[in-house]
Amino acid sequence: MQIRLILLDFDGTLADTRRANTLAYVATLREAGYTLTEEEYAAKYFGMRCNEFLTRYGIADPGERERLRLRKIALYPAFFDTVRLNRPLWEFCRQFRAQGGRVWIVSTGSRANIDNAMRHLGITVAGQRTGSTGAATSGAAGRDLTGADEAWLRTAGTATIDAGTPTHATVTPEPGEGPNGSVDGILSGADVEHSKPAPDCFLEAMRREGCTPQETLIFEDSEIGLEAARRSGAAYFRVTL
User: Some GO term, biological process aspect, for this entry: which one (predicted)?
Assistant: First the structure.
């Protein structure tokens, strides 16, 4: 299978941000006088987009929801010491880029949150300042996905964060890259009209790179993300952290 493009969800796939997100929401609501525990958020609301979560929590005023959303973004970096990179998956992606493939982050999360977390992890956007979107590119070289690759990826997809040594050699950062390398672009929920489980975000990344679903491999963890991947027509792996 010739793959030219890898698309990665961020939260729960490339990085374990669950605790950081939970603590940021708890701190935001407590600061505003609301009562929310880590256990309640994890059981009832984890995985929801911010506006949906705040609405279901019972905050009806759109202005108040927006104020809380912005405050959560501001508080989020204070909890980055709990964020962990999925190193086996990321090292595979860096090898893929080194051989001419393209790698994008495609997430329903806030762009500001993604940028802040990636900066903490030492990952930049290739050839751009962090925070800008990737430019369309055609003719990515890609690589054939071998049986050994597929077997290893199935293991990496369920790997414990930071566990073990990747079977693919570590790549030295290029000049101008972050210490942990780069992606070629980022798409967030604000970049498309219909978020996951609609496939729009994945299809838009393919369009920008001039790739077909048959040339694309997607990594996702959530049910809505996996549904979007299925509907895009691309091959995909489920990631469990």
Answer: DNA repair
